[in-house]
Automatic annotation (TrEMBL):
Protein name, as recorded: Heat-inducible transcription repressor HrcA
Family of the protein in this entry: Belongs to the HrcA family.
Keyword vocabulary terms for this entry: Repressor, Stress response, Transcription, Transcription regulation
Gene Ontology BP annotations: negative regulation of DNA-templated transcription
Domain Heat-inducible transcription repressor HrcA C-terminal: 131-350
Record-annotated Winged helix-turn-helix transcription repressor HrcA DNA-binding domain positions: 29-96
Function: Negative regulator of class I heat shock genes (grpE-dnaK-dnaJ and groELS operons). Prevents heat-shock induction of these operons.
GO molecular function: DNA binding
Taxon lineage: Bacteria, Pseudomonadati, Pseudomonadota, Gammaproteobacteria, Lysobacterales
Family annotation (SUPFAM superfamilies): GAF domain-like, Winged helix' DNA-binding domain
Gene from which this protein is expressed: hrcA
Keyword hit for Transcription: yes
Source species of the chain: Mizugakiibacter sediminis
Amino acid sequence: MTVLRPLVSVAAAFAAAGIMTLLSGHSLDPRARQLLRTLIAQYLAEGQPVGSRTLARSSGLDVSPATIRNVMADLEELGLIASPHTSAGRVPTVQGLRVFVDSLIELKPLAREEMEHLEREFAREAGNTRDLLGGVSSLLSAVTHFAGVVTVPRGDDFPLRHIDFVALDGQRILVILVFADGQVQNRVLQLQRRLAPGELEQAANYLNAQYAGLRIDEIRARLLGELRAAGSELNRLLSAAMEVAAGAFAPAAEADVLVSGQTNLMGYQELSDLDRLRELFEAFQRKRDLLALLENCARAPGVRLFIGEESGFAALDGCTVVTAPYGAGGRVLGALGVIGPTRMAYDRVIPVVQATARLLSDALNRVVPTQ
């Protein structure tokens, strides 16, 4: 059993709330920590405000209800719990949940049968990376009953396997790029003049011989160097086909994000407000903010977790986002995760996201050479 370490920096948020030292535990004595842990675990399990009598029975502490009420008052003053208008019990705030996941929760490995289920799903054949990632977002949704998300890296994040040119009408040609992960990109280029089939074949043969196995950014850098070298073999062989090479290796389109299981979120009481759901579903449709959040997560190691307003996006204020990066060939390629209500079983969801990211990286490493 391992205690969860801090998952994401929230120094600014806690400094603004005046409870910076809570992350290190200095402001909470062992009794307060135990009561907060018990209250949050009870709330996450049942979704109801937790009263002092319930805490007295389930905390395992030999203290009176009056003492518990005093501790609860202190925790409420710190902003870690709150009293709903309709109940004398307390519920955790976003700040309370943050302290819980950063320093109070205990994580266990996934059960053997659940891990085996994930491994079986990854053993299924996938046509290319996008097919694999689509399956991953669906898998995360099915296992957690939340929305599963995964970013799709640009094709040029993977090494080039093969390039070919096909003449179209006039001065247009079709560029076919096949990458190491099985993805195929087709690009149509408009050239300055019509090139003969022999020139296109010569260009393709040279590029395949010299640059197969490299990523597009590496190819562009090498092409630039060779183009600047007077009398280089590339200048001699390709001459008029320079434009073909330059256009063929232009940067690819922006990365994308795949979302599965959005409708799962309609079944949670915490997200049942129609205006909130509409805003959330519009964010899924636009993808821009969600993609920005996930790309930020991909730049940091390990699991990152945003509770409520911590994400910085209003549409996710009532949600928790749990993410982990994945990669291959020694490079980070993106991030995956789940989006659900803030009342979730963090001790189960976090290991699921961790394990899925590791299995996806393993699957991609089987087709992408290590750098």
